[in-house]
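1st attempt posting a full record on here, be nice pls
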Amino acid sequence: MKFDIVIAGGGFAAAYCARTLGKMLGHEEGRRRVALISERNVFTFQPMLAEVVGAALSPQDVVNPLRLFCRGVTVLQGRIHEIDWTQKQLVLDGGRFTRDHVIEFDHLVLALGSVTDLSKVPGLAEYGWPMKTVSDALRLRSTIINRLEEANLVEDPVVQARLLTFVVVGGGYTGVETAGQIHALVTESCRLYSNLKDAIPRVILVHSQGQLLMEIGPELGAYAQKVLEQDNVEVRLNTRVMEVTATKAILNDGTTIDAATLVSTIGSAPNPVVLDVCRQLSVNAPKGRIEVEPTMRVGGQTHLWAIGDCAAVPWDDQGTLKVSPPTSQFALRHGQQLGQNLIRALYNQPLKPFKYRYLGQLATIGSHQAVAEIMGFHFRGFIAWWMWRTIYLSKLPGVLRKLRVMIDWTLELLFNRDISLVLPPAEDVLRAIHLEKDEVLIDRDDHVRAFFFIRRGSISLTDKEGTVHRLGAGSVIDQSYLGDEERWPIAATAAESSDVMVFRGRALDLLRKDLRLVPQAPGSGSPGA
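the predicted structure (as tokens):
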């Protein structure tokens, strides 16, 4: 396949660029000359993702099929492995049952945005729930409801409190809106559970900066904090999460939060595909954002363009030259402007620089309140909340989705939020876990639900006689310790900060029944398989 223009990405910038090209070129010519490559076949309306978490909206309300939204261009779903600029081609992975596909291009638009990297905080990748896609939002909502179901079953108040504690990391738009929606969902839903009517759920917002919503200014940021705290959302500023385990978050001030659910709205990292293209062309990309000309063309290149979160697009803010902030408001305008410039480039016409009059920003903070900065004027409270819903409803693509959202918002005002479990609890047959020093991995007499492989660190085993054995990296805790029992005759505790692979479900059955693991002598510290 070969196209005149290939747009790499499926977010606001990429989708609106493709949409503009499709309209300007016409249906047949656009499909022949333009391709949009996205890892998912939907365009997600990011500003409303938090409402999906809080069950105020259905996941279908905030997505649009790219083939409907970008009529008139060819849409290809897949993950881009690499881009060879010299050959003007890229390699696309279409899925499990297809081979890699080579796509050739004349003009390339990089709109891949950033990727999520939670590896810098120990345990965050294993236990932190990201909030970037509609799938993330739906999984998080199901997780929250599962926590309520589990808390309704337990009698131990310590365990119940841990299950009803939710930590949100990051005090930007996504973090503030997600914290508010989680609080609304769990507070309203607890009344529906027999054993949770008197429970007091905790939602804790942890932010490394001195104020919330840095982009919107100190006044509205302080107001957002005030409203959240009035709703009993705990806000911890100038605080970082240093380590995360299955049951707790350890902060930089030495305090520990016992929580079974942690949401991460931080951890954005440069897209490796974008960085590789920059390396091939010796192009500057500070913090993963490519430096481009005001026309959004990469300097020194005639056929390479960049927009959205992966581009540092110059922006004339009423006479002051700035870099466009990585928000959907600007990404949308980047896409529309670049679509027009690409048409000009195809027909050798002069390009136009990016210009946009900044309109303002809005953020919801729960309890039918919001903060807004519109055309230099500040609004807060119910009027800002009403403005938030009105403005974003007007920008939501598709008449049918507008109608669905209006109905869902109306029902959410009149009735309880929907706590149906759309997704069952995930069954991870193989997963990684992180343990801090002295954290318990196995209690003696626990039912055998998993086997363990120690990737890093060490685990102390204590048998019935009180003898302690220490297993290092590369060791396994498996059926060799069980005999004919179905309960663990040992206790296992992290001797130091450790990472462990867990085999459970179908993987556990395979290991126990089919592989016939070679028994490991207690204390040997060598692998048992």
